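Subgroup meeting minutes
Present: P.N., E.W., G.H.
Scribe: E.W.

1. P.N. recapped why we're keeping a running log of single-chain structure predictions: easier to compare across weeks, and new members can see raw inputs and outputs side by side.
2. G.H. added today's entry (313 aa).
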Amino acid sequence: MLTWYHRSNHLKDLTSSSLPQATSTPTVKIALALGGGAARGWAHIGVLRALDEEGIEVGMIAGTSIGALVGGCYLAGKLDELETFARSLSLRRIVGLLDFMLGGSGLLGGMRLTQRMQDHLDGVLIEQLGKPFVAVASEVHTGHEVWIHQGSLITALRASYALPGIFEPVKSGNRTLIDGALVNPVPVSVCRAYEQPLVVAVNLNYDLYGRSGVIKHIASEPPPEMNEVARNDKAARLGVSRVMVQAYNIIQDRIARARLAGDPPDLSLHPRLSEIGMAEFHRASEAIDRGYQETKLKIGELRRLQEICVERV
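Output recorded in log:
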């Protein structure tokens, strides 16, 4: 691909004086709403790789949680470094990055991860990225949805992925900020507010539960055989951490579905990621590949939407 590109440019230079200039077909840049999903968020890297490979230009990114992390690194020109880091993660390396804190507002302080970001993003401001970028966070004391659109990129990313109970809340100005997935898991509404003509959402949790239902149920004691299974099968037991993870998944999924129903994107990408747990950051290669594959499958539809947008203009 790279060889062909350079040859075609060389031929264009040789013939530009003798041939009439071809009129290039106008295209519409896409706005990406990159959703939260913890470890499943590595799929965003695959999405961006596929878009770049197809020559589809991104004009804006709004990101929540890990969507903000990947989107911010992409616009800062650091996606290669982030992908190398993600693919290098093993269970042992992940433990080495954790800085446990007792008595604080979160189990992890996050400073070791912050140091990693500072190695590549120190001093980078959001307004220097060249394209609009918004990281979505939540304000602890008011419940407000906070759109961070200027200032320190590192602070914005840390605030957006500060999962309650895991990472310490982030102080920014007079606000205390936590994970944006609590209020806007897939931030299509941010792209709409910026009047973007073509919005593509990447929802990482779409296949976790399916459509919500209401079930009528009679309260009763479980049958004896179920109690016996629960006693003998460790996998069937729900520990505190597993219950918390499942509860967070449910909240994020239901909020996302409600918000997207009221403000839908022009196109949704749904990488199949239900088998990857939100804490399984060491499975980055799988998540990246699935994001790439899902995007490739939707390229034809995306180009068609770009053509429609051009006709409207």
